[in-house]
Amino acid sequence: MGKRVLVAMSGGVDSAVAAALLVQQGYDVIGVTLRLYTEPDELALRSGRTCCGVEDIGDAKSAATAIGIPHYTLNMEKEFETNVLNPFIESYKNGRTPNPCVNCNQYVKFDALFEKAKAFECDYLATGHYAGIAENENQLYELHRALDAEKDQTYVLYMLGQDQLARTLFPLGNLRKDQVREVARSLGMSIADKPDSVDICFVPGGDYRVVLENHGVEMNSGVIELASGEAVGSHTGVAGYTVGQRRGLGIATGQKNFVTNIDPVQNIVVIGNEQDLYKKFARFSQASWVGDTPAVGDRFQARIRYHADPIQGRLISIGNVNEFLFDSPARGPTPGQVLVLYSGSQVIGGGIIEP
Question: CATH 3.40.50.620 occupies which residues in the chain?
Fold first, then answer.
């Protein structure tokens, strides 16, 4: 009997194929699906655009049956609310633009599941993320971008450290998406052609303002200003705006207007032209390094949004708040989003972008 692996199965084709591949490789596999959020809109559950819903739990169970492995469902809605949903809401209230998938991966899909893996007496935790793990000559584990650049998910996995990588398996790291679907078809999985999720699981339709409204966030109107301090209009509440936003401002200044800054304390939204979005450097906090802490002056490629092109630059300070200087100005480093550093295909680490 091979080593035992707990596989997080979301109900999608990626995690199902990850489980199947591990079975083929001789592992003793247990599938588990997390119930994270009960979607009040039943139509959204049937849209094929969300994950972690009731329908997806059924798909995961069906896939587990096709593979021939045991499957369990764990209710982790409280953990999800505490570590993902509530911080998401607070971030917008504070004029920031969060990436909830980072918190979900860190606190729910990895931290909490590693504890569950111990309870199941599993040696490893595996997921359907597109990422790779390698051990270098210094016996340190490295996190690498996936073969399929379009599907690579290392941007939301930068917080994984040595202890976690030592116990993690990413079976899809060297596969393209079309190959994954072909494996699913060969195994007769009904979800082989299931569409990928494109929305945040608790934001059906992509409008986060609905979530804020449903959770009683007060929207207090205030002033929209230029960087000079000149008032040019009014807003309906800072939580409804994000840095880089262009649509819905209702301001006519004779040029294209973008949100360039949000001041939740003064209840002010600042706008400017597109050039005002470009920054020479970015500050980031809550840094997490995959291996050794890098040094000031080290050069890396920085990614400031999930699918943004990496930008060359160097670290100019390391501490509670770190600073990365871009070789050429970067468009819109957004407070609350994530800055991830790469050296080629290797993930160095990252943190949360600060104003």
Answer: 4-128+171-206
* Residues 143, 220: Cα–Cα separation, whole Å: 43
Please report, as a single letter, which amino acid is at residue 207: D
Parts of the chain with a pLDDT under 50? 1, 41-50
Mind telling me the catalytic residues?
104, 201
C-alpha 350/C-alpha 288 separation (Å) is 6
Q: In this structure, are residues 18 and 44 in contact, taking their beta carbons and an 8 Å threshold?
A: no
Instruction: Name the average pLDDT for the chain.
Output: 92
For the entire predicted model, the pTM comes to 0.92
AA letter at 180: V
Please say whether the beta carbons of 109 and 8 come within 8 A.
Answer: yes
The CATH number that domain 4-128+171-206 falls under is 3.40.50.620
DSSP string, 107-123: IIIIIIHHHHHHHTT-S
Identify the CA nearest to 258 among candidates 161, 354, 331: 331
Name which of 203, 209, 30, 208 is nearest 120 in CA terms: 30
CA distance 298 to 309: 19
| CATH match for 218-272 among 2.30.110.10, 2.30.30.280, 3.50.30.30, 3.20.20.70 | 2.30.30.280
pLDDT value at residue 206: 81
Distance CA 19, CA 23 (A): 6
pLDDT digits (tens, 9 = 90+) for 224-280: 999 999 999 999 999 999 999 999 898 887 889 999 999 999 999 999 999 999 999
Among candidates 120, 75, 155, 132, which has minimal Cα distance to 337? 155
Ramachandran angles phi, psi of 132, nearest 5°: -130, 150
